[in-house]
Structure prediction request, 266 residues.
Amino acid sequence: MQTTRINGYDMAYLEVGEANSGPPLVCVHGTLGDFRTWYSVLGPLSKTHRVISVSLRHLFPEHWDGIGGNYRMGQHVDDTIAFIEQLGAPVDLMGHSRGGHLAFRVAQARPDLLRKLVLVEPGGALDASLGTGAGAPPRIAVAAEKVRAGDTEGALQHFFEEIEGEGSWRRVPAAAKQQLRDNVFSFLGQVNENRKPYTLADAQAIRNPTLLIGGGATKGNLSVIWRALAKHIAGARTAVIPDTGHWMFEQAPQAYCDAVTAFLAG
Prediction:
């Protein structure tokens, strides 16, 4: 693990792979994640890329108590932009879930910093210009209430099973559960993070070559959003990882890496 000073904060990251193997691939985690989110694919991806996996502000290795007003999507976007600027653009940027929303906003604000964009079931909501049926579900608000009541395990179970289905939490390996537990107080910040819905104009503004990836078994708004965005991002490519859910890179790492590396090489 390394750290670098970004907008007054020591931002942690992992870096693997050869420095001279082309543009860096910067990986951004989603809700409850950190630089460990991408462990299952760091090895395969680093065979052909310099891979940099970041931890956003207030996520592990920081043990944040949820107090403070700067856990905002805008702050995380600004931090990621500043991080990429330090690397020396352009980079390839890959984001999962909330991190996919963040990566989308980076591409919207600073396309000059990016070569290619990979959005992995980006989270959020669609506004009316992109259709209906993909509003933001209340799972974060419910989880935050459980954290405030002292039921952190219940918060994690509710959040996870709202995405992956009833009974899925008990099947999560112990190490993966601990990673999520390490970041459980981020629910208290995320519930008021000021995330804006995607609009048709937002999607049409993306100019970087873009790959959108979905899990074949994902249900709900996370399966709707990436498909709606793909219809309106010029030249967007898509990939579905069969028989996987929202964390498809953990469930089928080789198939996931094959899709990503083929896109980045093209």
User: Anything to note?
Assistant: The chain has a mean pLDDT of 94. The longest strand covers residues 9-16.
